[in-house]
Design a protein that fits this description.
Blueprint (H helix, E strand, L loop, with lengths): L1 H7 L1 H32 L2 H10 L2 H16 L2 H24 L5 H30 L4 H29 L4 H18 L21 H14 L1 H17 L2 H11 L5 H26 L4 H21 L3 H29 L2 H32 L2 H32 L7
Length: about 425
Amino acid sequence: MYWQLLRRDRILCNYWSGALVSRLGSNMTMIALAWIVLVRTHSPLQSGMVYAFASLPVLLGGPVVGALVDRLSRKRMMLTADLARATLIGLIPVGWALGLGSVWWIYGVIFVNTLWGLVFGTSERAMMPHLAGTDRLPVVNSLLAMTRHGADLVGPVLGGVLVAGLDHPSWVLVLDAATFVWSFMMIRTLPEELSPQRVEASPQHHVSISLQIKEGAQYLLHHRIVWALGLTMALANVMAGPLENLFLIATHTRLRMGADGFGLLVTALGGGLLIGAWLAPRLFSRWSTFSVVYSGILLFALALMGFGQTHAGWLGVLAALVIGLAMSPVNIGITTWLQQKVPSEYRGRVFGLLGSLNQFLSPIAMVTAGWALQQQPVSAVATVLAGIGVLVFVGGYLFVRSRMAPDKETGSRFHA
């Protein structure tokens, strides 16, 4: 299905190749930078700050970026983001050559680079219905999700190999900068008419960014189904956020596995995400969006509860695989539904606001779960997280199902 789609559509194939190589490069860079900071400072805390500075922009900049994406050409925003990221990543080795070796230089570049990544990702989600078309949207979203999950599995391994094998880890950053240049070249192949309707074409051209953000928030809050699905995605991420910490503690206390066992659990989760993305279009071609999304939430909860109760390593790995399998269709289904139902002029702001909500809730969930794991056994924490999923499932049937029912009559069953 996917390869036939890419063979038939050269523009989409070009876009996909840019997404693949840039995601691989970004994963390699995160490994390289964390390693470089650790070697320079000998501080696990400061190396961990690499990932913290890569998360802050989504929390702080989501609403503003969403408003800009709705105001300007999304294709142009993506091109600018790629050029900016190529330049920023290249600035790190240049800074070292000029004597700017402070870790704060690295943190600053990471922060701004991730902010441009937010611009690119929000523009991509808002633009995708124009690129893929309504009928192909779930398949294209699944393909891009598979690409991200595959790169997330391969990229860190490749980054580690390159850091160990090259004369200096900065060469990894040079390679990453080149991947953004390739992505830029591929995005340039998108036809101009695929750019969305621009705000300047309407009387809202002179509306301030702050007022646009307010209008986006009002749209989100006044459309209950949009808010409910956004909250569903956010709570699913609350359940998923503490998973690696949960796996780590379970490895030592319940499953009696070593570091290799922890790595196996994380790999099983990533493999499940990849397989789930591959299966998603087939699921949406047979069942409604609502059924796939909320059944996935329930399966996620049951697998998480099972993980908390098992003492067998192989069952833990199986549960991690099932969790990943359940997560992908949930995220793909909600994203696709929002892309199809939210008007183009609001799409950037909706995704920007929901991204900030996710980024706000996920760290809170991670910290809270980490504190709880110091006080309570893995089984208790896993049960609480699974309970959130059960509540979301029940709430979906009570409050969301009736509002999504009319979509079935207008073609909400996606066709692979």
